Each structure stands twice: as structure tokens, then as C-alpha cells.
């Protein structure tokens, strides 16, 4: 798979059609100061103050019925006492949505991400490191739509390729390439409601297999319903069966229930409620383990007190089920509360509190972290 060639093709499409339209560029920058009580996410807490600068450039244009988007996000973090942890993240994607005819449409996309792995975000034991885990992710995707969302029936086929590479801290055993094929059929049963059938297959090939090979073939079969009351109030629910077959026999295969819920509800003009849930197989960050099942539930509420003042609160609970290691069970709990004030049309000020916690049956995996943030977001 030639990612460079695909990237150049998509960029050339965007450049070709953008010349016939006025460029729509939206720059933004976020400046924030974070007081983190446990920067390594370990049982022995180490605190630090972190300054972050996050620029963002979004570009969008149209040519006839075709839409084109490009986005760049940067994130620079500077630690006051632990400067070896300083990092600079880059993320970009290019997307082209092509309206080919009254029945056919397609999406083409390219994504690139150079990022760090946040401590405590995986099933691996958190440790005090000289530098955080660094990784690059490259991917392309292509979707073909037959029919529209307004049609009685719609068929969607999607192919995605992903390349993940780690560059430090001996994490190269986690490098893999994946190919994913997904087919979804929607059938409208009411003006605002569609039923769906979805099947997907993933071929996941690990690249460094000298000590362990976590390569696998993953399949899932889901049925569900999609409901769109308004442009804001909507929900999608899918449930079915998933199966993970590893190439090597000493890793326990995973199978069982899989589901996905994404609901957005606007009960009044000033409030938005979001509820999400999922159960799916995940890749292990520990070399001695195969994959595991992650069940995640989250709820978020945002409310506008005035036209300039908004408060939001959210809670996420994640359960890690290790099918091949019954002596361990993990629970992740994340609480977020944020108060923001729109001081000018281009400037938003905010204060945020986060609490991140992991409870494990193996005590040395436990951690508890509190993060207080003061920030300003400016758009131009």
C-alpha cells in the first residue's frame, strides 16, 4: 500500500477544485496551564506544572456538489520540572467527499498523526520514564455510498488501511499494519428511523514478531437502529457478535457480545446530553498478553447559563476484561468538569478539572491523578 501516492492523489484533487472557490481558512490557538498531581500515572505520585500551546488550522471548500476539507492540529507541551517529557504532537487529515451521481457518492481520506501516548491510557503498567512513548499513525480510507440518507435503502462499503509505529522505549513490538473492510446496509422504516446491518473484517499484521506475534483476524456482525429527530438530537445503537482469532495458538482467542451506542439529546435550547457505550476487543500494550475486551460507558452534559457562560460535566467508566489472565481486572474512571466564558466573539476563557483513576486487582497498577487547567482559546 503506497500511502505517499494516495496522499498526493487526494491533495491534488483538493488543489484542483479549491482554485475555483474562495479559500475558507479558520485558524485557532489554545493556550493552557495544567497542574497535574500525577504526571506518570503511577502509584507513587509525581506532580508538575505543564504549559501547552495547541494551534489548529481548518480549511474547507466546495466545488459544485463536492466538499473538501483539510485540518492541522499541533500540541506543544512544556514541563516545568521534568523537561525530558516535553513533546510536540502533529495531526493532519485531508478529506474529499465526492457526489458522483444522484445514487452514488464517495469519501476519500488521508490521516497522519505524530503523537505521544498519554500515561495510564492503556493496560500497561505505568512507569517513570525519561520520555513518553512516541508513535506515528498513517492511514487512508475510501467509502462508496449507493443511495442517500433520504433513500429507503442505502448501502455503504468502506476500506481503511492503518500503519502504527512506535519509535522509543522498546515499544516496537506493538507496531502493526491493519486492513479493514466494512459493509453496512440501512433500511428506512420511518421518516426519522433506519435499521442497519453491518459486517466487518480486520486483518491485523504485527511487524516485529521475534518474541511474540499478536497478528489476528477480527470479524464482527452487528444489527442496529439509527434515529435522527433533528440535526442535533440523534442516536445510533448497534449490537452483535465479535470474534478475534490469533495466528499463534498460545494466545487465547476472544469472542462474544459487541455493542455501540452514540446518543445526542437536546432537551431544551440551553442543554445538550450525550450518552455513549461500547464493548469491543482492544490491542494489548503489554508484550506478555494478547488482546482484551474493553467495555466503556460515558455521559456528558453541557448547559448554557447565559449566552456567554457554559458549564459541562462528564464521566467515563471503562472496564478491562482479560480473558487470558483471570487474576487481573482493571477499572478506569475519568471525571471532567469545565466552566467556560466567551469574553469576546473570538476569545473563550475556561477553567477545567479532571480526575483520572485506575483501580486494579493488582495493586501496583493503581493510580489516581487530578488535573486543574486554566486556558484561553482564540479563533481568528
Descriptive report:
The protein is mainly β and 380 residues long. Helix content is 4%, strand content 65%. The protein contains one helix and 18 strands. The protein has an 18-stranded antiparallel beta barrel. The two termini are 38 Å apart.
Given the helix and strand composition, which structural class is it? mainly beta
Number of helices: 1
Low-confidence stretches: 1-22
Q: How many β strands by DSSP?
A: 18
Rounded mean pLDDT is 92
Beta-strand portion reads over 45%
- Terminal Cα span: 38 Å
Please give the largest β-sheet: 18 strands, antiparallel, barrel
Bulk shape: globular
Element pattern in H and E:
HEEEEEEEEEEEEEEEEEE
Helix content estimate = under 10%
Radius of gyration: 22 Å
Amino acid at each position: 500500500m503506497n500511502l505517499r501516492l494516495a496522499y498526493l492523489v487526494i491533495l491534488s484533487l483538493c488543489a484542483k477544485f479549491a482554485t475555483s472557490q474562495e479559500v475558507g481558512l479558520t485558524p485557532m490557538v489554545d493556550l493552557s496551564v495544567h497542574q497535574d498531581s500525577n504526571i506518570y500515572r503511577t502509584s507513587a505520585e509525581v506532580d508538575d506544572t505543564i504549559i501547552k500551546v495547541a494551534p489548529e488550522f481548518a480549511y474547507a471548500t466546495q466545488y459544485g456538489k463536492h466538499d473538501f476539507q483539510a485540518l492541522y492540529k499541533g500540541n506543544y507541551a512544556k514541563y516545568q520540572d521534568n523537561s525530558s517529557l516535553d513533546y510536540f504532537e502533529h495531526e493532519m487529515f485531508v478529506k474529499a467527499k465526492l457526489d458522483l451521481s444522484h445514487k452514488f457518492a464517495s469519501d476519500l481520506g488521508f490521516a497522519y498523526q505524530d503523537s505521544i501516548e498519554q500515561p495510564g491510557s492503556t493496560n500497561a503498567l505505568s512507569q517513570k520514564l525519561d520520555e513518553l512513548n512516541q508513535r506515528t499513525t498513517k492511514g487512508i480510507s475510501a467509502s462508496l455510498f449507493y443511495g442517500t440518507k433520504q433513500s429507503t435503502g442505502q448501502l455503504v462499503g468502506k476500506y481503511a488501511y492503518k500503519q502504527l509505529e512506535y519509535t522509543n522505549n522498546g515499544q516496537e513490538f506493538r507496531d502493526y499494519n491493519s486492513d479493514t473492510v466494512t459493509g453496512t446496509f440501512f433500511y428506512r422504516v420511518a421518516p426519522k428511523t433506519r435499521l442497519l446491518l453491518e459486517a466487518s473484517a480486520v486483518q491485523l499484521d504485527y511487524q516485529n514478531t521475534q518474541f511474540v506475534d499478536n497478528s489476528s483476524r477480527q470479524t464482527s456482525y452487528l444489527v442496529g437502529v439509527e434515529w435522527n429527530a433533528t440535526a442535533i438530537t440523534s442516536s445510533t445503537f448497534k449490537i452483535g457478535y465479535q470474534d478475534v482469532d490469533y495466528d499463534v495458538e498460545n494466545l487465547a482467542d476472544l469472542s462474544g457480545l459487541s455493542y455501540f451506542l452514540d446518543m445526542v439529546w437536546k432537551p431544551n435550547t440551553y442543554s445538550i446530553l450525550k450518552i455513549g457505550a461500547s464493548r469491543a476487543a482492544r490491542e494489548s500494550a503489554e508484550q506478555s498478553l494478547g488482546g482484551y475486551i474493553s467495555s466503556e460507558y460515558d455521559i456528558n452534559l453541557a448547559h448554557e447559563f447565559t449566552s456567554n457562560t457554559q458549564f459541562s460535566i462528564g464521566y467515563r467508566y471503562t472496564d478491562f476484561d482479560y480473558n487470558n489472565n483471570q487474576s487481573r481486572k482493571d477499572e478506569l474512571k475519568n471525571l471532567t468538569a469545565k466552566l467556560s466564558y466567551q469574553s469576546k466573539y473570538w476569545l473563550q476563557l475556561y477553567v477545567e478539572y479532571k480526575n483520572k483513576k485506575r483501580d486494579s486487582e493488582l495493586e501496583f497498577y493503581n493510580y489516581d491523578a487530578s488535573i486543574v487547567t486554566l486556558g484561553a482559546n482564540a479563533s481568528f
